[in-house]
Amino acid sequence: MIAKRIIPCLDILGGRTVKGVNFVDLIDAGDPVELATIYSEKGADELVFLDISATEQQRDAFEPLVYAVAKKLSIPFTVGGGIRSTEKVARLLHKGVDKVSVNSSAVNNPDLISQIANNYGSQCLVVAIDAKIEGDEWWVYTTGGKQRTNLSLLAWAKECQERGAGELLFTSMDHDGTKNGFANEQLAELSENLSIPIIASGGAGTLAHFKDVFLKGKADAALAASVFHFSEIEIATLKQYLAEAQIPIRL
Amino acid sequence: MSSEVILVDYGVGNVQSIKFALERLGCIGVLSADHERIINASHVIFPGVGHAETAFNNLQQFGLDSLLPQLKQPVLGICLGMQLMCNHTEEGDTPGLGIFDLKVLRFINVSKIPCVGWNSLENLKSPLFNGLELTYMYFVHSYYAPLSNQTIASVQYGLTYSAALQKDNFFGVQFHPERSGKDGEQLLKNFIAL
Fold first, then answer.
1. Residue A167 pLDDT > 60
2. Counts for chain A of helices (H) and strands (E), in that order
3. Which of A33-37, A101-105, B58-62, B147-151 has the lowest mean pLDDT?
4. Which residue of chain A comes nearest to B107, CA vs CA?
5. Cα end-to-end span (Å), chain B
6. What is the pTM of this model?
7. pLDDT single digits (tens) A6-30
8. Half-sphere exposure (CA, 13 Å, Cβ side) for A36?
């Protein structure tokens, strides 16, 4: 049986700094390559690197880092942030990246999804969607949650699937950072209405939140950052807990 | 015969992660479409991601469709590589190399397509799997090879199908050993040791 996936996400700035990572024995190191290896050894099922560089100069430092991580990592490796062209995708895949994640650039240019899927295959394409609830409606936001669009979540998610996205990474902006649990109701709706795997993001705080996101939210994978970075939740403990709750997991 | 591991280069897919995995085992994988070099390699890895039709057209362009089935050394097809070693695939109604006597089919009646994630291998029947600890491997695919007498490992996703195939010196794996942690590395190590 296919296992539910646990995916730590690291924010990378200027190709060096790992924001908000505080492993007890790694405060000083903060070396993304080492962190990636540690996560992989701790049982992470995949790893996501997000390039949060604000300037092109900082961004140039990202690719050498990606290369160094891909070289050491023996689990799937996804990178996102600032990917606007198929040329960039080609460069990243050539550096050993397995999947790319596109967000704002896909909203601004939906054809990018089709182009990536057609040229490199759906297996390497994750479309990330940030959304927020207003009344009863979920709206898609871009530019790191700063810009509201006129796209409703479900309609946009369906378009992404039709255009060839291999997976969807849904972040609820209302839940992100709260540590109060994932947006399970909305996740379940997405999962039931789409045929591609859904990665849940935003809201992880406790072990039970992960159980709920798989059982109630029907997610195929769960992504989190701070609970892992600050060792609030150990991946091995989490996976053991999920296995005991009869959730298929790779121990 | 040289002790070179060749990664068949036919202009599709991302082979960098396989190169890296081999490097971690202290082995260099050389990308090549050169017939002489492929014939003389000690091991041949036949990778593949993307669309079957494009991939098969490329194989034909490089004349590899007639070369690959004649190879005598251990050959390992990975993912689409394995599917192209079968008789036919439903993806783009594409012919294959006919090494494995199977038709590759599209998943139907499963909850999610593509099938993405770690799944556990069952009914292991090859030295290729010696020393595996967890037997979980990373899969990402929308088409599958059914069970046959060439199946050397099976896996369940909606139905039970072939996770790995073997015929003589030809091996094929549906999953990605290069991204399947320690067990994936062990499998590649076992292959290189053949």
1. yes
2. 11, 11
3. A33-37
4. A195
5. 14
6. 0.95
7. 999 988 887 765 655 555 444 434 6
8. 29
> Among A75, A96, A123, whose Cβ lies nearest the Cβ of B114?
A123
Cα distances from A235 to residues A211, A239, A243, B119, B131, in angstroms, run 13, 6, 12, 18, 25
What CATH number does the domain located at A5-244 have? 3.20.20.70
Structure tokens at A35: 């962190």
Residue A47 has a pLDDT of 96
What is the identity of the amino acid at B71? Answer: L
Q: A21 or B141, which is more confident?
A: B141
Cβ separation A45–B117 shorter than 8 A: yes
The CATH number covering residue B72 comes to: 3.40.50.880
Helix H or strand E segment including A139: strand A137-142
pLDDT at B13: 66
Q: Are A6 and A235 in contact (CB under 8 A)?
A: yes
What pLDDT, on the 0 to 100 scale, is given for residue A34? 83
The β-bridge partners of A97 are: none
Q: Where along chain A do its domains lie? A: 5-244
Distance CA B180, CA A64 (A): 23
- Comparing alpha-carbon positions, the chain B residue that sits nearest to A78 is B179
Give the 3-state secondary structure of chain B: CCCCEEEECCCCCCCHHHHHHHHHCCCCEEEECCHHHHHHCCEEEECCCCCHHHHHHHHHHCCHHHHHHHCCCCEEEECHHHHHCEEEECHHHEECCCCEEEEEEECCCCCCCCEEEEEECECCCCHHHCCCCCCEEEEEECEEECCCCCEEEEEEECEEEEEEEEECCEEEECCCHHHCHHHHHHHHHHHHCC
Q: What are the pLDDT digits (tens) for A120-153?
A: 889 999 999 999 999 999 999 998 888 999 999 9
Judging contacts by C-beta atoms under 8 Å, the chain B residues touching residue A122 are 114, 142
Nearest to A99 by CA among A173, A45, A21: A45
How many domains, in total, are found in chain B? 1
Beta partners for A131? A140, A172
What token pair was written down for B194? 């053949």
Nearest to B179 among A1, A75, A197 (CB): A75
